[in-house]
Design goal:
Oligomer: single chain
Order of helices and strands: EHHEEH
Number of domains: 1
Number of strands: 3
CATH class: Mainly Alpha
CATH topology: Multidrug-efflux Transporter Regulator, Chain: A, Domain 2
Strand order of the largest sheet: 1-3-2
Protein name: Helix-turn-helix domain-containing protein
Largest sheet: 3 strands, antiparallel
Shape: globular
Strand content: 5-15%
C-alpha cells in the first residue's frame, strides 16, 4: 500500500493542494492515515480510482 501526501495527490490529479484537502473534507477522497504533522495520507489506488471516475463524469 503506497501512501501519497496532499502535494503528491495534487500533482497526480493536476489540481491545487487546497482542492485535495476539500475533497478529503467532503469525503470524496478518503485519507487512509495521517502523517507526522497531521496531514492526510491517501492510498495510491484510491487516488487512481478517483481520477478515473472523475474523468468519466466529465473531469476533475
Amino acid at each position: 500500500m503506497a501512501l501519497m501526501n496532499v502535494k503528491e495527490v495534487a500533482a497526480f490529479l493536476g489540481i491545487q493542494e487546497i482542492r485535495v484537502e476539500r475533497l478529503e473534507r467532503e469525503s470524496l477522497l478518503t485519507a487512509k492515515d495521517t502523517g507526522p504533522a497531521g496531514e492526510p495520507l491517501f492510498e495510491q489506488g484510491d487516488v487512481e480510482r478517483y481520477k478515473q471516475l472523475a474523468e468519466r463524469l466529465g473531469g476533475i
